[in-house]
Amino acid sequence: MGVPQHGQGDTVWEEGGRGPAPLISVVVPTYNEERNIERCLESLHGQTIPRERIEIIVVDGDSLDRTREIAERLADKVITQTSMGVGGARNDGFNIAEAPIVATTDADCQPYPGWLEAALKGFEEDEVVAVTGFLDPGDWGDMTWAERLTYQA
């Protein structure tokens, strides 16, 4: 399969000639995240790959605060969650994603600028089907031994 690299080869255009198709979609599940969502989405706007190659999808669980209002300014798509749980919200986003690769992050995260570029780099080999992000060893305290093994492998 291989992943198209930004700035290399032919430009892939969306149907209808709207511009370059996204290389990667990012799904952000939310529920009452007005304190966090703006920083999260702004960090996605600040990635090292061109913004037009990133599709940002917010899946909102019927927030009672201004989460959706804020997200509508900064995301490409904002939908209402229809499946149960945070995993269901991610699945709702995956189902409408247009890019060949889908990443997910939480609304209270601020991915560093090279996060999506590093994720795409992980898919340069045809055999790769999934990659995980960086995990600070300080986060390991609450992990089970099986979770630690996954990240150390």
How would you describe what is shown here?
29% of the residues lie in helices and 14% in strands. By secondary structure, the chain is an alpha/beta fold. Helix 2 links the parallel strand 2 (54-60) and strand 3 (77-80). The longest helix has 12 residues, at 85-96. The chain is globular and about 40 Å long.
SSE pattern, N- to C-terminal: EHEHEHEHH
Uncertain spans? 1-14
Q: Which percent range describes the beta-strand content? A: 5-15%
Q: What topology, given as strand order, has the largest sheet?
A: 3-2-1-4
Largest sheet: 4 strands, parallel
Distance between the termini: 24 Å
Q: What value does the Rg take, in angstroms?
A: 16 Å
Tell me the number of strands.
4
Helix content: 25-40%
Concise structural overview:
The chain is α/β, with parallel strands linked by helices and 153 residues long. It is built from 5 helices and 4 strands, in the order E-H-E-H-E-H-E-H-H.
